[in-house]
Amino acid sequence: MSLKSELAKKGEFYHAVLNLIDPQKAAVLIKEHQQKLSKIYFPPVKGTDFPLVGMAIIYAVRENLARKLQVSWFHETAAGRIMDKPMLEGPARYILMALGDKQARTSRNLYVYSPKSLLPSYRESIEDVAQIISSFDVILPEPEMPFIPNPSWIQADANLLMNGCLWDIRTTKSKFPLSMDNIVQQVAYLVVNRGKYLINSMGIYYSRQECFFRYPINKVLKPGFHQVSSSEQPIVDLKL
């Protein structure tokens, strides 16, 4: 059972994680996001594949930061475990990586190797990715070590972990994209961590809204739970 599917049930595990969150702190955080995300700078290109573009942006962010740090990264990701690094240049390479990621998770032969066959099929999605990545140098923070491009646990994997900050990279057209369910998912990563990684803050990058938030863990947790990410003892019995 995966972490996301277990949370989607909104059963015992979901509510156990929810109980770690201070509702007043979460409400303040949600309001802060709503106030700053009133404008969408990169509306979706008509005909774009939303899930594919979302995953492509995750890979694009990873590569952008890894290049600046001059570290290898691709073969530590889901796509990198089943395919060589795409030889394409520009935004099309990230669509190819996203297709490889989808194949890795579904065991279906989805991605293609030929740029000639890739471009016509995903032209709108490639255009969508191109407009978003044009803002990276302005919006993304300076990269830091340690850099883990695809942190993973038995039950789940996350977008990025950089110098103790666990990222959620979100490509959404919603003007109010942060909800309590999103916060629960972030805190759930802290629960499954059990001391594997040092996590002291959370980050959310909204790619279409050109906005990056970073905040310490205790900004959403109840008092007494601030060490949840570094504890080897389970705070919640996962049963996953």
Condensed summary:
The chain has 9 helices and 5 strands. The protein has 240 residues and is an alpha+beta fold.
* Tally of individual helices: 9
N-to-C CA distance:
5 Å
SS-based structural class? alpha+beta
For the largest beta-sheet, the strand count, sense and barrel status come to:
5 strands, mixed
Average of the residue pLDDT scores: 88
User: Level of helix content?
Assistant: 40-55%
Shape: globular
The quaternary organization reads as single chain
Q: Could you give the count of β-strands?
A: 5
Uncertain residue ranges = none
- What fraction strand? 5-15%
Any overview of this molecule?
The protein has 240 residues and is α+β, with helices and mostly antiparallel strands. It is built from nine helices and five strands. The longest helix has 20 residues, at 50-69. It is globular.
